[in-house]
Every structure is written in C-alpha cells, then in structure tokens.
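lol so apparently i was supposed to do this last week
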Amino acid sequence: MTPQPLLEVARLFLCLYTQAALSAPFVRQVAAGNHRCLAWPKGQVATMTSSTLSLATEIEAATGVNPATCYQCGKCSAGCPMASESDLRPHQVMRRVMYGSREQTLRDESIWLCLTCETCSARCPNACDPAGVIDALREISIESGMATMPRTISAFHKSFLEQIRTNGRLHEVGLVVGYKLRSGALMNDVTNTPGLISRGKMGLLPDKIKGVAEVKRIFDKCGVTL
Ligand code: SF4
Ligand code: SF4
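anyway here it is w/ iron/sulfur cluster bound
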C-alpha cells in the first residue's frame, strides 16, 4: 500500500477514535506527550492540556456543541468561501478546539476572517455548527483579552454597531464614513460612490426607527463601547 492510502486509513481510524476523544484514558495518553494529528496544520503538533479541555467545555457551554463529535470529514471547509484566505479552515478550528492550545486558538486571526455565512454549519453532517463555534471563540477571545482582530474588521464591526445604536437600523453612508475614518482606507472604492447613490442603493440621510431610545438602552445595558 502506498503512503497516501495508508494515511487515509490512519485518518479514518483517528476520526472514529475522536468520537470518544475526551475519554479519560485518551486524555491521559495524549497529556503524557505530544499527540500527532494528521488533520493538524502542517508542521504543528497538537498537545491536549487541561486548558484545551476547558476551552472545549467553554465552547460546549456556549453553543451546545460537543467539539469531540466532529469527525474531521472536512465537508465544512470544502464549502467555506474564506478557506483560501484563512490559515485555519473550519474543520481545523474544530480540531484546535479539541486538541489545540487555548491561547493559540483564541489568538488566531482566522476566527475573525469568517463571514458567518453559515455554509459550514449547513453542510456539516453531524450538526457540529462550526460557524457557531467560531462565533463563540470570538466572544471568548475578546473576554480573555486575546483577540487579534485586524484593524479593518474591527473598524467594520464598530461602524456597523454605531449605525444600529444611532439609527436603530443600518445607514449605509454612515457605515462607509465610519469605516473609512476608523480603518484609514479613505480612498478605497470611492469611485463606486456616485453610481451607488444615483441608483438609490445608498441613502444620503438615515432612516431612523421609532424605538431608537430603546435600542440605545440595550447598548448601554450591555456596556457596549465603540
Ligand atoms: S463538516 Fe462537521 S463533522 Fe465534518 S469536519 Fe466540519 S464540523 Fe467536523
Ligand atoms: S461561516 Fe465562516 S467558517 Fe463557515 S463557511 Fe462561512 S466563512 Fe467559512
């Protein structure tokens, strides 16, 4: 048998094995040394520690998904539109939650490149909800001060939320202005603006909802600072 089929057979056994991945004997075995994982990003070694177990537990508490049920089929990553842009694809994120270091996972920029399109979750044959797991990882990374959100992504999220707090709904021009000021990308796509406005795709003035005060109260109660 050539090395490739051998690897595939080994991977199949590994995937079946991870169905019971958090069983005590397995944990002891892995914790005793480095466990080489074929689905792990090239050149890295996965080591299971108490902190990684706690990350899996945190994710299960936040999402209801037991990360150990992922059998690494890769169907999520095969449909992910950001797979070619991210260091970690959705199945690798799931793998890291199971085996990776907590800090390494929470500090990885890939979790911020996800578009939350939910294609991965729709494709998953085992209801593992990678999109929900990534979302929970974002929250945990912010709460633990480990978030490495790129400046442009942070600028977009803040500008979007600012519009919701101010108008109760999105005002596209306000979003673009806020994003450009925060990101510094002042001249990006400016030539598209006249066409968007003339076709009615961007209103110059915001269209506020009636309950703006209530929306603001929600923001205040959640302690959102932008
Ligand atoms: S599709 Fe589901 S089971 Fe398959 S690798 Fe992705 S999360 Fe895991
Ligand atoms: S939700 Fe994120 S990880 Fe899932 S397919 Fe979309 S971009 Fe990829």
